[in-house]
Amino acid sequence: MTKRDLIVLAADKDMAQTLRGLFERHQALGIREISADVRVEEQHDPACAQRGVSFLSIFSKQYRRGLLIFDHFGSGRERIPPLDLQNDLNREFARTGWGDRARALVLEPELEAWVWGSSPHVADVLGWEGGNTSLRRWLRDEGWLKEGESKPNQPASAFRAALREARTSRSSSLFYQLAKRVSLQRCEDRTFHELRDILKLWFPTSS
After folding, report:
1. CA neighbor of 69 nearest in space, from 195, 175, 167, 185
2. In b/e form, how buried is each residue of 57-83, taking b as 16+ CB within 10 angstroms?
């Protein structure tokens, strides 16, 4: 049986839709086209942190690579620094059939940190009249964004507040649209860059 490239266990539908959108932009990520299956953990971040490795271990012979991804905030393991938690989970992977073929990625503090950037598409997707300049001005006026900051320090709460202000219904499809449209070069989030580096290592364009 031919192995598929990648299986992902994501903590929620928002995360899953983001990844599906990103994988469709393989050229922008700097990787080859891949066959990927994204599964959603119904009990979200805490379940991913507690048993995500054991769940993915079932699939080690069916896929070339595995990825576990969830938010640090709300995981129930916030007392452990995100990088330490990642390292712990990667050591767990090493003791399974995956060896070094699977990785954990703990988003700090949460997925919405990837949303906020200078791309004009953010305001468009959120249904914000007046464009990105107007949106960022509103974020500052409401105290979500401080002078000199590139993104709110409470990214999920700011995202929900912006949607309410724009009277846009919250939907996981918004994350798919953002992943498909926002410039990947402008995202400054550490964990996003780490994801891209992992994918480029696993699925180089020359392979």
Report:
1. 195
2. bebbeebbbbbbbbbbbbbebeeeebe
Structure tokens at 58: 């079932």
Q: What is the pLDDT of residue 118?
A: 65
Element (H, E) at 173: helix 172-181
SS3 of residue 64 by DSSP: strand
Peptide bond into 152 cis (omega under 30): no
Structure confidence by residue, pLDDT tens digits, 143-177: 999 888 888 889 999 999 999 999 999 999 999 99
Q: Give me the helices (H) in 2-130, please.
A: 13-23, 26-29, 44-57, 82-94, 121-125
Both structure tokens of 183: 């410039």
* Distance between CA atoms of residues 165 and 205, nearest Å: 42
Q: Which of 87, 58, 66 is nearest to 202 (CA)?
A: 66
Q: Going from the N-terminus, what domains does the chain have, and what CATH number goes with each?
A: 4-112+182-202 (3.40.50), 116-171 (no CATH)
CB atoms within 10 A of CB 47: 17
